[in-house]
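We give the entry.
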Amino acid sequence: MVTPYLAGGHTDPSLRSQRLSLLLLLLLLLPGPPVAPHMEDPTFPHLGESSQPPPRACPWRCSCPRADTVDCAGLDLRLFPDNVTRAARYLSLQNNQLRELPYNELSRLGGLRTLNLHNNLISSEGLPDEAFEALTRLQHFYVAHNQLSAAPQFLPRSLRVADLAANQVAEVFPLTFGEKPALRSVYLHNNQLSNGGLPPDAFRGSDAITTLSLSSNRLSYLPPSLPASLERLHLQNNLISKVPRGALSRQAQLRELYLQHNQLTDSGLDATTFSKLRSLEYLDLSHNQLATVPAGLPRTLAVLHLGRNRIQQVEAARLRGAKGLRYLLLQHNQLGASGLPARALRPLRGLHTLHLYGNGLVQVPMALPRRLRALVMPHNHVAVLGARDLASTPGLAELNLAYNRLASAHVHRRAFCRLRALRSLDLAGNQLTRLPVGLPTALHTLRLQRNQLRALEPEPLAGLDQLRELSLAHNRLRIGDIGPGTWHELQALQVLDLSYNELSFVPPDLPEALEELHLQGNRISSVGPEAFLGTPRLRTLFLRANRLHMTSISAEAFLGLPHLRVVDTADNPEQVLVQLPSTVPRRPRPRRGLSQARPS
């Protein structure tokens, strides 16, 4: 082969390029020396490879923050997403419009641990039972707020949490929740389950269930054969009129039992109904038709809710076993003059709170437990408070006798003298014409609104240097009825409510610590420049619904009030001009009648 030369003795450049190309091709085709397995560097990019990992497959519009997580929530999906990786362990499809789950898609996701289908349109026909046979590792299954009429006939043995609440489920099958040794929580509330739709062996072989919610269904009696491992059982809002004998005999670990809003009567319970519940701490039987306190209550019980029943009398014998009771709620029953006999509650030595709201009691129950801390009995018929009516409860911290029939003449001057720990006293809505005397000096809150108070004198308030809130609203107080020095010893008072009285101007010499002052609904027609000189910490002032006009408030009235933020002057005869000190930052202009930081 003759190689042509160019002038000057050089090889043709095009031929040189062809030679180089041919040489490179031969080098690529020739086998190279073998590479020992231990010498190969897997991180080094080989020929034809990229140094970046391949892109992770993820369904369109979904997010996949990890290789095992697919999140397609809230995308308005109507069809099961394509391209869900087989490696998925967590699949979230809640808040969509799915009506069915294709068997072929679910069956290939054998590694799923969590499947969330909450809030879709899935019917029982759209949830194939066969698909769960492949989900042998599924632990958390959420299908609440759908349209299931029956539970799946089979759920995986590996299940730990099953949530089928807020569907239309009327039938459960033996293997829906049965034979699940790891199952801990089952939620079936807000469905249409009757006793006929819940088989006797519904939970057989599932001996680890601690939480079972069957509330808001159509059960007429407590289901038998409930798991012995239960710790929380929700059965409220059903039609239960009876607890069959022995139905709760195996639940020794049950701590919380909710049976409120049913149709239970005394004949539907017996002395053994609750006696075997050796761990029970909370029992709610409110909103039923009980006429007596149930018998056989366990000593571990801490909270007993019996409100809204038909109980006419509390018998000491019924409470003798519940020695650990801390909270007894008996509001809105039919307890009359003899409803709580003397010493009826004495067995409850650790009782902390007693609620008796809305009964027909005519006096404070006698011989209450000594350690009682809260006595709540508004809306009764108590007309007399004697010197020793509260003597048995020296540790009382809260006393509520609002909306009874107490008149000043029938409140003994020593009625409160033993209550040295009292922090809150509510006497609102009675017939008091003057402040009670002998008030405990530890009081923080005193409520006397909606009485018939006509005078305020300093003596009843003397020594109340810890009082923080005082409500005197809706009485008949006038400026002349407030004696000189009335507020002098209220050094800690922060909230004072004098609304809806007959005051003609702002009371003088208000407490220095005051932060919130209610004067709405009075007859105030002017606010002078010295009205708030003694209240430098004032933050909120209510002057609405008085007799104020445009210039009724002095321009200097709020000087020296650096913390003042709200002055409410709505519903006066005219729009009121309010000027706040310039030290207060300017704020957006409020609506008519509500002034916020308008600098002078």
